[in-house]
Specification:
alpha+beta; about 40% helix; four-stranded antiparallel β-sheet
Amino acid sequence: MARLEVAPFADEHLEDAARLLAARHARQREAEPLLSERFEEPATAREELVAAWSAEGASGAAAFRDGRLVGYLVGSPREVEVWGENVWIGAAGHAAEEAEDVRDLYAAAAARWLEEERRRHYALVPATDL
């Protein structure tokens, strides 16, 4: 398997990331068929991803193999008064072809968050992504 390369997430990754998110949702629906099938459409998944990426303070990481996007992770802070210095990775904030790649994505993104003194990290992760 080719070496994983990780870079900061950027606008240019949205299309490919939306396809990864739609594919992840399709896999989730195999285990949980009552989930809405509309998120299996890359255009709908892209809307959710754009909302996550457009949140104030959003940042993240993108993973590539042989120049092809194979995973991403995006998070943003929520109310400091409630959560302290934090970052949340929402339902649309991550997808990867290989679950193991999420560790490298998180390591890259979390390094920045720690530099920003955001030490509380929360992630919504599907139970089917094991």
